[in-house]
Every structure is written in C-alpha cells, then in structure tokens.
Amino acid sequence: MERKSFSDMSCSVAQCLEVVGEWWSMLIIRDAFMGVTRFDDFQRRLGISRNILQHRLVSLVDAGVLQKVAYSERPLRHEYRLTEKGIDLWPVLTAMRQWGDRHAAPDGPPVEVVHKDCGQAAVGRLVCEHCGRPMGARSVRAVPGPGYRAGRTPLEAVH
Amino acid sequence: MERKSFSDMSCSVAQCLEVVGEWWSMLIIRDAFMGVTRFDDFQRRLGISRNILQHRLVSLVDAGVLQKVAYSERPLRHEYRLTEKGIDLWPVLTAMRQWGDRHAAPDGPPVEVVHKDCGQAAVGRLVCEHCGRPMGARSVRAVPGPGYRAGRTPLEAVH
DNA sequence: TAGAGTAGGTTTCATGAGCGAACTGACTGC
DNA sequence: GCAGTCAGTTCGCTCATGAAACCTACTCTA
C-alpha cells in the first residue's frame, strides 16, 4: 500500500510533516545546516543509500526547502543549498536537538550551539512574541484559526 | 532491508527522530496534546489503520513518551497520556506548526494558539536562555559538546 | 436471554518503500 | 590509456504500511 499522505489534513503540523516527515529528510536538512551541500558528502556522512538520497533530495527541492545550484559547468555539477524556507526549519531542528540532548544524551550533548551574540553555549527557549514570557504546553490553549476547516476539532491543550 | 536505525548516530536530532520520526508518530503526539487519549479516538481523528496505530502507540509507550493508564477495571480499558518526556516535545510540535502556518497555510493558520498569560493568539519565538536575544540559524555556531564522539564533524552552521 | 453496541486490539494479505550493491556516464588529472 | 571523482540509476530483495475483516470481553436494551 502506498504511504498515506497528510496533505489534505487541515493542520500545519501535518503539512510540515508532509515535507520533512520522511525518514532521513530532517537529517539531510541537519547536515545542510552544517554546511554540507554535495551528493556524495551527504551520502558519506549519513550512510544513506544513494537511491534514497536521490529521492529525498528531489522531493526537498520540489518542496522548496533546498535548491539545486550548478557550481561547475564542465563537468556539470550541482550542489544543494537551503532556501529561506529551508532555513526557517531551524527552530524545528533546534527543538529536536534540545529534546534529544535532554532525553537521549546520557553523556551530555554531542553538539553544542554557541550563541554568537553572547558567546555562551546556550539553549533556545520558546517565548511569546507578544509579551515575551515563556510559552509552554501548559500556558496555551488551541482555538480555530482563519484557515480552519471543519472535521477537525481543536480541543484544550494538555490536561 | 530493514529501515535503518539512527540510534547509533552521535546526534540528538537523530535520537529524537528515532523516537518520533516514524510516519504518524508526531500526529499521534499532536492529538495527545489536544486531549485525545483513547485508541478509537486517535483512530477516528487520524484515519490511520488500527494495526499501525497499535504499533505506534506501543513504541511511543516503550520510548516513554506516552503512558498507558487503566481508566476502567471491568471491562479493562486503557488510555494513553503524555508523560513529562512527551510534554517536552511541545517545542518540536510548535516549531512544526509555525513552519506549516508560514509556508503551507495560504488561508491562514488552521489552528491558533492563545497564550494564557497575555490572552493573545501569539507565535512562539526562540530566544537565548542566557542573554534573552533572538536565536536564529545565523546567530549560532555548532561546536563539539561533552557527549561528542568521533566520526561526526560539526561544521559551521549555515553559510 | 438474545442481539446490538463499544472498546481495544490482532490477523491477513497485497503493495510499495527502503535497503545495499553494482553499474553508468561525463568528466579530470596524470 | 588508466585511475579517480561526482552524481546519479538500476536491480533484486525484504519489511513496513495499508484496508478490511476478525476477535475478545464486556455492557446495554428489550
């Protein structure tokens, strides 16, 4: 059976997963953030099969997350670079990394992130854009937005 | 061939994906945040096959993200609730939702989140825990952390 | 006391996605 | 002319995914 698509779900989480929810996709994006751009470099670093890598790169390019740019004419060679849409995935990647650091890294984080502004190896925290106070699962509630379509009932968040 | 596991990668993103990277897992967790706890409710809301749902619930319970709690003895009935480890996935979910809202919701967000502290339908923003200033892909650089193991070379973030 | 309904699964089986490995084609450098 | 690099493509296998049917244990209604 074909893998079911999330694209007709009226939910932004599902739309995001439709683009980056495939096995390997987020790791390709992670490596792209680390500066990897070439097919063989992705393949070597990830240990992914070449055909799967090819599929993923094509679908990420189709989704507008990566762009394929020629860096040599003869021979014709391309590299894959994050678009702005791809760079906007940074908070997703960061949230995943921080969750992994906290719950699946007994020896401490394998990679730390230094904030250039203050020079500290720091953790990102989610705050409300409006009031600047912390925004956690228990401090919000979900309501239907302008793009809401029937069939999906937002409930109270976490009880 | 068996789907390759990410568990031996020295990377917290990979560890996170190992737990929630399967097709459907994040949507199950999203619904759990919306207050869904029962097998049949998950099944109906997601339109997922019952066997796949069963697999996912078992692996999320095994991973410690959900817990199975009896809410009735006769007949024996269980419900699935987020653990603290599961609730810690909120930033991941929020980042995905916000990315989807921005890049895949032409009619506006299907669901908005109201911050109880200020009453506004607000967006979460990632700031440095240390200095409080915004933390984006371009304002950080990756360095090896205490849990670093060879074979993985952190590079500069985004060029 | 029979029959319908509900909750939470389990089984079955066809399909297709993911896998490694080998191969291809276009080029460069020696 | 031969080795090496880069970016794929092809091949054949296996396992995960999917829908639908089935199962178990209990409750509710008549």
Q: Averaging pLDDT over every residue of chain A, what do you get?
A: 89
State the distance separating the first and last CA atoms of chain A.
Answer: 36 Å
Q: Percentage of helical residues of chain A?
A: 25-40%
Q: Largest contact between protein chains?
A: A-B, 97 and 96 residues
What oligomeric arrangement do these chains adopt? homodimer
The largest β sheet of chain A comes out as: 2 strands, antiparallel
Low-confidence stretches of chain A: 154-159
Number of strands of chain A: 5
Morphology of chain A:
globular
Spatial order of strands in the largest sheet of chain A? 1-2
Secondary-structure element sequence of chain A? HHHHEEHHEEE
Radius of gyration of chain A: 19 Å
Q: Give the class of chain A from helix and strand content and strand pairing.
A: alpha+beta
Give the strand content of chain A: 15-25%
Helical run tally of chain A: 6
